[in-house]
Structures are given as structure tokens and as C-alpha cells.
Amino acid sequence: MWFSYIFLIALAGAILLQWWLILRQNRHVAENKQAVPAAFADNISLEEHQKAADYTTAKLAVTKVELFYGVAILLLWTFGGGLNFLDQLWLPITSDPLWLGVAVMISFIIIGVVIDLPFSIYRTFVVEAKFGFNKMSFPLFVADFFKGILVNIIIMAPLLWVVLWLMQSAGTYWWIYAWAVIVSFMLLMMFIYPTFIAPLFNKFSLLDDVSLKERIENLLDRCGFKSKGIYIMDGSRRSSHGNAYFTGLGNNKRIVFFDTLLESLQPQEIEAVLAHELGHFKHKHITKQLIVMSILMLGSLALLGWLMQQAWFYSGLGVSSNTTHMALIIFMLVMSVFGIYFQPLFSFFSRKNEFEADDFAAKQSNASDLIHALVKLYKENANTLTPDPLYSAFHDSHPPAPVRVAFLTTKMNENE
Description:
The chain has helices at residues 2-31, 46-77, 82-90, 97-130, 138-169, 174-197, 210-223, 259-264, 267-282, 285-307, 311-315, 324-338, 343-364, 367-381, 389-395, 401-414, and strands at 204-206, 230-233, 244-247, 254-258. By secondary structure, it is mainly alpha-helical. The chain has a domain at 200-282 and 346-414: 2-Layer Sandwich (Zincin-like). Strands 1-2-4-3 form a four-stranded mixed β-sheet. Strand 3 and strand 4 (254-258) form a beta hairpin. The protein is globular and about 65 Å long. The N and C termini lie far apart (66 Å).
């Protein structure tokens, strides 16, 4: 079957591409392991630099195994008859096409999570623990795992039912209605996530440092940003990695700092990090990303609307049931393969956004403070300072450390 060959060629190309990129990254990090880049020599020791190199290598070793493991699972689902078996498993329980579709898809998602579980455990309790980052107990890991599955079932089941109903009942242009439902659902999730979903996994408390709070509120006023609050998240309960982020939508926006980040940065550095995040807001990056995602989703659903009418789309991937839920599952699998080739494009635009946010931060706070904050975070998170450029172009949403620091240095020089 010609579609089988196209899919297998694309899959083989994706495997070879990813393997080659991993080899490049490993080699580049190893070649630069013996010397700290000049821009970081005053702040990061050789020992810290080599720890970051070893951490990168350890993560890549897991990625290499996971790559071939994932391919084997994909082939088992399709040509190995896994999807057919799952479909037949549920048929005696329910013959209703909608509930059968929901049951099969929810099962497919849960099985995928379970299949990935060994890698998640190894990363957390071996790799992260070896380099001193893991703070999570195994009971907490198990609780998070089952809680995550339950939340996903509660959220996804109604959405899948509506989408499958539209696919079956809304006629030729069902994909337009499904697109409207999915986009509305995404916006709803963004709105309710801070107050209903995130607290299920982490504890959030209002920032109580008066001077830091005043400093942040002054920055928010200068930038015209209104928030429902400045919150501290108990990130240290799970990991020593530090971070900060915005969450929510509309009037339900929150600023969240990991407690680990507050412990490692000075007030002026925290202000600079927040200014960077505000840069994303001022440049409307989140809004632009939502628009792009919505357009891509509309195109993808339109493509699915055509593909699901073609018998070769099912048979070409070893699926015997030409049902709407099978069309949706195999479409997701196909897109996961072909999507790899578009990663550099998405990374490019993401990096462009990061440069714009850095430029905004340099104007609203101090470029030097942001550089100091970033260097501390690179050091404490053991981020490699010497990624392979091509690997980074595929996999990194942020510019490499030397490029980003060089950019901020030019901004610092402009302001002098």
C-alpha cells in the first residue's frame, strides 16, 4: 500500500534525523567540556560547567532509548494490530459509536501514559536524583500520576464525546464546528487552570515579602499589567529547578514564582526576570501563539475531514475499522511523525519571541540584572552552555545561553 510506504519512509527519516541530532549534541558538548565559555568564566566554575555537560549527556542517553522504544510502540499500535485489538476489546461492552469512541480514545491515552511511565520514573529517581535535582518522594510521584490520569479523564471525556459527535453528525463541514469547540475549550482551560487545576498538584501562597512585592507592583504599573496576584509555588517539593511563569487568561491572570527561584535570585534579578515575562505580554506573544495554533488546528481538522473519507488512510496503517475515533487516533499518530520536520520553524518563532521579551526587559529593568539572573539559572539548573547549534535549532524554544547573553550585553552597552 503506497500510504504505508510513505509513512514508513517519513518515520525512518524522522528516526535518523533525531538520532543524528543527538549524536551531534553529544559530540559538541563533549568537545567543549574542558573549558568554560569566556562569557561565563567569571561566574561558572569548570566543575559546574562539566556537571552541566554530564547532565546533558545523561538526559540524551535516556532520549536515545526512548526514541526507539517510541517507534516500536507506534508500529505495534498500527501495523502490529494494537488499535484493532483495543477497538475489539471495547465492542462487547458498548456498541454505541460515540461511547465506544470515547472509551477507545481514553484507553489509548491512558495506555500511552503507562507505557511512558518507566522513562518518567528513571528520569526522576535516577537522572534527576544523581545530579541533585529531584526532591520528590515516590508516594508523591504515584499520587501525581493517578491524579493526573483522573483529571485528564474528567476533562477529556466530555470534549472527545462532543468532537466525535460532530464528526459523525455535523455533515461535511463538521471540522469547522469541532474547531470552534476545541478553541473554546482551550480558552476555558487557560482561564480556569490557575484556580482549579494547578492547585490540585501544587500549593500556592501570596507573596509576603513587602519590599519585593512593592518592587514588582511598581514594575507591573509601569508596564500596564493587571494581575489577580503574585504567587509563590512550592516547586521545591518536587525539584530544585527554578522557574517563573504567567498563567491564566483575561482578568484571571496570575504571576507565579517557584520558591526555588526566589531563594536563588536577588530582588533586582527577580524584577528583571519578571520584566522578561511581561515582555511576552506586551508583545502579545500568547495571543499570537493562540491565533497561530488555531489556524493550524483548523487546517489540520480540514485535512482530517478529507482523510477520514479515504479507505487507504486506515488500511495503509493497518487499521481495519473505518470509524471516526480510529481516524482521529491515527491522524494524531501520523502528525506526530510528520510534525518533527517542522520543529525548527516553531523553534525559530519561539526564539524570536524570547529576544523581543529580553529587549523589553532591558528597557523596563536592567539588562545586567537579567544576565546575572540567567547565569544563575543556567548554573543551578545545569543547562549546557555549549549546545550544538543544529540540535538547539530543533529542540530549544529559547536561544542558546551564549547567544542570549551576547544579545543582552549589546542592550546593556546601548544603555550606557
